[in-house]
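PT: before anyone asks, these are the final sequences, not the draft ones from last week. 983 residues across everything. Please model them as a single complex and drop the result in this thread when it's through.
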Amino acid sequence: MTSFESRLPAVASHGVDHGMDHGATDAAQSAPPPPAWTNIHAPDALRATTSDAERLAPVGRWRATRAYLRNPTAVIGLLILAVVLAAAALAPTLFPEDPLAMVDRPLQWPGQNPDYPLGTDALGRDVLAGLVHGARVSLLIGAAATLVSVVAGVLVGATSGYFGGRIDDALVKLVEVFQTIPGFILLIVTVAIAQPTIPAITLAIALVSWPAVARLVRAEFRALREKDMVMAARGLGYGHTRIILREILPNALPPVIVMASVTVATAILMESALSFMGLGDPNTISWGSMIGAGREMLRTAWYLSAIPGLAIVVTVLALNLIGDGLNDALNPRLSEGR
Amino acid sequence: MALLNVEDLTIAFPRATPVRGLSFSVNPRETVALVGESGSGKSLTALALLGLLPSGARIASGRVAFAGRDLTALKDRDLRAVRGRDIAMIFQEPMTSLNPVLTLGDQITEVVRLHQGLSRAAAKRRAVELLDLVRIPEPQRRVDEHPHQLSGGMRQRVMIAIAVACSPKLLIADEPTTALDVTIQAQVLDLLDGLRRDLDMALLLITHDLGVVAEWADRVVVMYAGRKVEEAPFAPLFAAPLHPYTRGLLNASPRLEEGHHHSLGPLLEIPGSIASAAAETGCAFAPRCPLVRAACRTRVPEPMAAADDHSVACPVTFTRESEHGLAVG
Amino acid sequence: MALLSVENLRAHYRDGGATLRAVDDVSFQIAAGETVGLVGESGCGKSTLGKTLLRLVNPTSGRILFDGQEVGGLSERALRQYRRSVQMVFQDPFASLNPRHTVAEILGGPLAVHGVGDRKSRIGQTQDALDRVGLPRDALKRYPHEFSGGQRQRLGIARALILQPRLVICDEPVSALDLSIQAQILNLLSRMKADLGLSYLFISHDLSVVRYFADRVLVMYLGRIVESGSWRSLWSRPLHPYTRALIDAVPNPTRRRHAAPLSGDLPSPRQIPSGCRFHPRCPLATARCQVEEPISRAVGDGQTVACHHADLSPIH
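LR: through. Structure below.
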């Protein structure tokens, strides 16, 4: 039994005539020769690759979506936001009248009058109509301000992080100037100087929010520009614009998307705070202005402040849940597992 | 009696079974190499021996007997007493295995004080001794340094010093030299082998590098896709490998040898990749095997003894070679 | 005439207070159709040298001549044209392919950027490239993460070859791959070279791989080439004590448990030793080695060595 080891024919000896010969080749000739290792160029050409690729990636593109939908709190956040969005979208249909118009006897409590399920305020305005119309303003300003700040932040951050050097120094200084001024004071001063219209408020909130985005994008770009992936693109003769927009940006976006969802929430809070202080647009109703109006009667008719307050809390919470969910879903290390 | 006896070990994740039915043993003072490519389950096996499996993974079946005690049955507290004292482990990345904010002395004394109850001063003296033992120059000075002041090779020596601090009976080294340069790798392997002899310990070397195995291992266990495909002492394994995978690996390795040059002919390849083994019905190597038969795709081959200490999990080569053995001798 | 000629090339970095001399006075040539192996340990500057040749890192001084044309002073525009002729295959196929692009974008991008053909012919070319490296054509719609390591490296090779370069710099192309996959990739590279008449600069820390793959070998230590020669002469007659130590350090089944050939650590490239940079670890070092830097000299058969005592050392 032990003697046969030394006489084993090696597989190599049947193949191409080099490599290790482990034993005598003559012994092998008596046995039917096994198929040699195929040695054509790329031997696994069509056989192994197609099937492997399928097995390796059963999820592919929709991995992040699935990971998100498996997260119950993230789905709850999404559902709440969907309700708020639907209310905002349907506001003109549901409550075609001006929400600032007086409709009935003032200070009816919620449940008192079935026509006005959430009651009326000190001036006899429908609270529910105000809430629904207020959602439009809050979401509009939140989304628009976020959009502006993300675009500005990405532009500055990408330029700064990708090119580095003097451009980077200058842009970092600019960001630092904005970050040293307390955000809310900057916001109040800006709105006070400009007219308190929706576009002005939006731009003012964006002005306060973009530096954080710029810093994040800059950090991502600085890390990514050293990656082999970007070296490869440079080595292939790609131009700077293409590398920034097509190679680096898609990889830098996930944390920006996460930050954007939280920025929407912050923007809604800022708008509410401005309106509460009476610095909002006087011609539109918003959640903040409703709380501000109810402030005087906090002891007698607390529902006037509590209901819009609750709307803000729930919406901001929903956006934060979405942000957390996106963070987990877009971070492959957390969402993949085994 | 074997120091470590792994019997029928199966490690499972909720959706995968990366190690299946693995059995092997390590004798006192012996160097056993667990060889395989990525995805073979070799590193997971090492972690399972110490009860350090990542979350989600569990030992689905099998026994790990160390000096007669079944480690899989031990409570966490008892297992902690075994770790570091009886069985120690070193990892591939000496950069991340050391705590960057503690001095080398702190990290070594922590282990000896925990397991041997030495006083602070005695532990410090022991730390210097240990640094000297792993041939770190100027141990008196080095003991107060931080890991970032050392090179990769020196950090791996410190890891080894911590590992052997309590004179373990078994040292598990998971790819100990993969991150190191070739001249440093030679030093570290030399050191490990010297310690093995001086401290009477056994060494379980987990590696993908056949050259390291051939030079330093007494016995070799070859793994493929979570199973043992061949086990033999180093000499017969390299002179006359039986399993088609082992043969394929040896053929595919470029070597520092005469006549080994691309102008003289291509390397012999193993086609495909280990991913082909994902859905296992028969032999996991069947999709890549040049000797594959119909039966290979339906039945998982069991290891069979080709000689006293040589087993192979391939009925095709086993029967063919046995017939030869009978016909010739 | 040599395809690529490098003369006294230096690439130094400022790293904190110190100057890191990653590439320090390196000269060599690559002939058309030749594979030059560049071997050395970590921190020896081999990877920086590869990137400098593509001007991904700017040289501090020295000349790089490609086809007789100076590469050092090329404008951004001219540099893009140069990069059509010289391509790179990276070590880590996971990091060097953009995870957000499909294979069609990865392979088609270089063609689009350089305005090769129209949209339709570009699709044909990407399919040809896949055929060539042994990947199925339906790979075009997939993303890099859907492929195994070996397959990704095939994609990396396909991308490097799609612009039909003349020189490919392979930076550790098989180091991240499993042994059974290494052979596939080496054979593929070898086949591509024969089919397309390529030249390679093959950078690796793995002596066995360089031994197999290179026609001529450069041995690098701390930023400098200490020995070079054809594969036949260098492997059978290594002269520099460092080359010998490298060869001796490779685990070898015929010598069981032999002692490590070199003691001591690799010095940091921030503090390069005086004189011969190898002298602190060299078994042959004398007082002269501590002060006088050896000049590279020819020792016949196209072999060069930079050592004062290369003649004294016993033949390996």
